Amino acid sequence: MTDKATVAILGTLRSFRVTFLSVAGATFVVLAAAIIISVQPSSLVRSAIEVGTFATNDGEVPLEPPELLAKRIPAVYLPAAITALAKSGVQASTLGALQNSSAESIGQTVSMRSIVNPAAVAEAKELQQKIIDQIMDEESNRSDVLREAAALRTVLWKETSDEIDRQIADYGKIMDRLSGLLPEAESLLRARQLERGAALQQRAAAQAEDGNKTTADIDGLRKEIANQLDLLAVLSEERAQSTRDVTMLRARHDVLAANLIEAQIAARAFKGTRVTLAPEAMPIPVGAKRSSLLFIAAVASILIAFGSIAFLHNFAVTRD
């Protein structure tokens, strides 16, 4: 049964071999021509920029997140650049191809890609250059603002630090004065205590008629000693409070010194945004794509030829 079917098929092919070859050949020529016309050589235009950074305690921070910039390119910068090209007279077909330009970020680098016809390479380069120029202008302005802010912080921290230094120096003078007054007050207190002790002894040994005068002297010494004790307490409290104030000022000074160093580093450690790859073009090979499509076209041509033979064979059998 299988042999008979094979013989029948081969017989049909012999009968319609001219038709088979004609249909297969014509179909392949048409498909191949369509593939060659539609699959034209193209060029890849690409460029890249590196986003600038500034220094903080946590390390280098980008002036703008690269991934955010990559999203803004097709959403903001690309339409503006295409509008500018349209006003300069670029063809609509070229503008349509340029609208498919894309951007992506890798680390601090943001790259742009445009796949266009080789005839539109100049327009693609101009488009990317316009985008780069706009980004560089905005990043430069952002960098200037941050640099000025860092310089202003440096001045403010320095002025505040100098003011605290002056306050600490004033407290130092006060504490030196208190340190001199306290020994004097303590010496005077001891002297009055000795005088009072001597007066008490004198009263005990004095005669009755002198008792009133001695008692008055002792009362005066008692009041003077009480005053000296109050003065000594005030001086001690003043020195203790001054010591606490100086400790707080020094702690604040240390914080300000760290902030000042950070601001100085930030003011000096700016790294501006730069172009790492100017717009350049490179051809995209089309040989492999054309070869695969031509192979598919050859298979399709053979199948169409088989279908045509089957149709003609059935038509002939039906007529007979």
From TrEMBL:
Recorded superkingdom: Bacteria
Segments traversing the membrane: 20-39, 292-312
Record key words, sorted: Membrane, Transmembrane, Transmembrane helix
Protein's recorded name: Polysaccharide chain length determinant N-terminal domain-containing protein
